[in-house]
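Hi! If you just cloned this repository, the fastest way to understand the data is to look at a raw example. We've pasted two of them here, unedited. The first protein comes first, obviously.
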Amino acid sequence: MSDRSGLVYREDFLGDPAAWAALKDLLEDVFGIDLGPLDRLGGPDPSSLPSAYFDAAGRCVANFTAFSMPLLINGRTVKAAGLQSGAVRTDYRGRGLFRDLVRRTVERCDALGFEAVALYTDKPALYEPHGFEVVPQHRFSGPAPIVPTGSSPSMRRLDLHDAADLALLQRLLRARSPVSQHFAVCGQATMFLINALFLDDLTLSYLPAQDAVIAWRAADNGPFELLDVVAAEVPSLVTILQALGVRPERVEAAFPPDRLDWKGEAVAETVDLQFMVRGKTGLMPSRPGRLSPMAEF
């Protein structure tokens, strides 16, 4: 049993500015994450389903949030939800609030007809009793394709502090195709924007000829890292490299490369943060893969 004495349980409160501010305070206090910039990018995801406890002073002391995250798994569109922002203030731990919110949130997802529910965690044992299973994550590594000689770059770097660039990216996110037919998000603009703010050394480049945004990284003497492609039609890897004006020796794709006209070897990720899914039999990816880092939550 959870000890909820002196607390008020609330759902779907993000339209209340004071409650939204209280949730942001909770996440900054517990995780050191400042979600203030999200307000400039359009605010919280409108599909969010927060479940939280507030104290008498209006502080959010515990929270868990579900949000709509449709997935393409094994070529089929799946109505899926992601779980995030699971946090409890230090002085309220040990009262069963977190376990209670996980149960409530999963039950809400089931009632709304989500076929699958996914999350990232470094503590898988907390979620296994609720039916979650770890899905191994892989990146894809291999020699870069040959870029035609004499080709000229055709791109420009995006700046999300520029209103026009932000509007361009938001337009493409609304109409994007899944980056893979095997395992990918079908549409999740808010997480892409949040990750664009927080990922280190990330470059966002717009390719006018392809009307595509490329999320990528390239360290000195390291491989070219392709993190995501936002476009109605995913261009080939050689087209991307040609437009960016880069000629790396090796490429690492952070998602299944089946739409890139390029093959890389699947390499198992050895990371503390595990990806877990709860859903019906057959909803697990049948091939190695992972979601783009721009879709992580």
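Ok, and the second one:
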Amino acid sequence: MTQVSKESLLKKIEELESRLEDSEQLVNAIQKGEVDAFAVNIDNRSEVYTLQSGDYAYRVLIEEFGEGAINVTEEGMIVYTNPYFCELLNSTYDQVIGTSLLNFVDADSHGKFKELFKNSFYKKSKGEINLNVNNSIIPVYISLTSLRPNIATVGVIISDLSEKKRNEEVIQDYQDDLERKNVELSKNNKELASFAYVASHDLQEPLRKIQTFASRLIDKEQGNISETGIDYFARIQSAARRMQDLIQDLLAYSRTDTQKGNFELVDLTAILEDVKLELLEELEQRQAIFEFNTPCKVQIIPFQFRQLMYNLISNSIKFSRSDRAPHIVITSKLTTELDFGTTKKSGAKKYCQITVVDNGIGFEQQYHERIFELFQRLHGKSEYTGTGIGLAIVKKIVENHNGYITASSGQNKGATFNIYIPENRHDI
């Protein structure tokens, strides 16, 4: 009996020595940073929790991680947290460790969090919830993974969504504002259409009557009107004609809209033949030479592009020099380089480059952008007729095709216009 008790006692001593050795090894590991350890008071009794890390570098990574990283028991108590999660909660390490994670979850998210937490025992689960810290809501995205069978805990990664939510609100406000502006734009377009109708009918009708009755007075009452009076009537007719031209050009500008035409693959040569025929009288009157070599086929709105070429060619005829016949040359080629004069742009996208060159009076290069603005004239109306809208229409049509137009010249050196239209309809 005594012998048995002695053996039993020796066995217990061996077990205690083994446990003591294990404890000493654990203490050494904690001191070296190889194991995290902390004490938690439960029911007035202190319990020590340890988290072993076989890879020290990995543990350091988690500590420095830019997301919240915590371990919780299967009852939901936080037994490990990295510094970021404490910062997110604006709390100290002691305030977080040993606390139920549910304490930091907003009441409205309790149900969803419990479901995600329960599902994590069987598979990875993730979703969005709200944390509540001092009555301040923090939207977060959490990813939960059970660490069994290694450790009976759940690993949780928490991502702060506050900035993302703020950006979403900004984007939503922007979209709402854009929708309001689209409604206003639609309203303005309708008003513009109404104006176009009024301009084309109501405004032109009084002008026609002014011109008609002025002509009748001159024809039938010429003998009763002084030379000064006749001069006044001639001025009235001239002003009425200019007003009519202005209204018609404004209408043409307002109608230059991509919604009123379909894109088609068109041979530019065919369009130029039509324009040449339309301007044949002016070309013959000025003995103009008009040449073109345009092998490009490009996807365009035909009637708009016909208007574009008509405006450019008639512009070259109008601003020709008095001492020589107008000479207009139009060429085209495919290119990947856009020349804006002072800068060049190149890429994979192909453009049809259409070049219009004339030998007219030209313009000072400093005005190369101004000439495309509405109502801009570089010469007096007594020298050259027009409303200053023709080139503005040209630019608007080019922009409708997602293209570019440049102009270069010098005084009495002619003008060169380069138009770049994307070859592929999908680039428009």
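That's it. A detail worth noticing about the second one: The CA atoms of residues 172 and 178 lie 10 Å apart.
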